[in-house]
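Dear colleague,

Thank you for sharing your sequence with our group. We've completed the structure prediction you requested, and as agreed, I am returning the results in plain text so they can be pasted directly into your records. Please verify that the sequence below matches your submission; if there's any discrepancy, let me know and we will rerun it promptly.
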Amino acid sequence: MSRIVLASSSPWRRDLLSRLGLPFTCASPDIDERPLANEPPSALVHRLALAKAQRLADDFPQHLIIGSDQVAIFADQILGKPHSEQRAREQLRSFSGQRVRFLTGLALIDSRRGSHRVTHEHYDVIFRQLSEAEIETYVAREQPLDSAGSFRMEGLGITLFERLEGDDPNTLIGLPLIRLCQWLREAGADPLSM
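Please find the predicted structure tokens below.
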């Protein structure tokens, strides 16, 4: 079996991948994540997921390299990380009672064969009606300043939702494990045959 590399510094992606029980290494790809002019969200997450994995391919020959990237979309706009409490509160106010779509790009490079696969998955979050006090409390307690959409599904974010819609809830956290498991099995790294 090839060794596995996660091209990410995200602790959430690392935690998700560790659920599979496969040994892996994490390495930060350090790429420019700015969207190109007029780049659709699906093209952006495809490009960035693949670029993250490709950035590490020379350093990790004979490996399976996983890249992933995520954007949140609301009112046909890509949401960035809020970076401030004020912006986080503004985002959450606008989401109250609304749907936010998350697109997560996934890439797998097999540096043994020089091949790759790339796709994206979507997952929708439908927010319940949020009071100003709930928004204030959530932002103060969770400090979601580095999270697209101003919430963390891994923590108290679940308290903000009316419902979730999609095929793989791991997509919302940033790593579509169902699709990744399929690709890993096909590449000879089946978590259940270890």
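Summary note from our side: The two ends are 9 Å apart (CA to CA).

Kind regards,
the structure core
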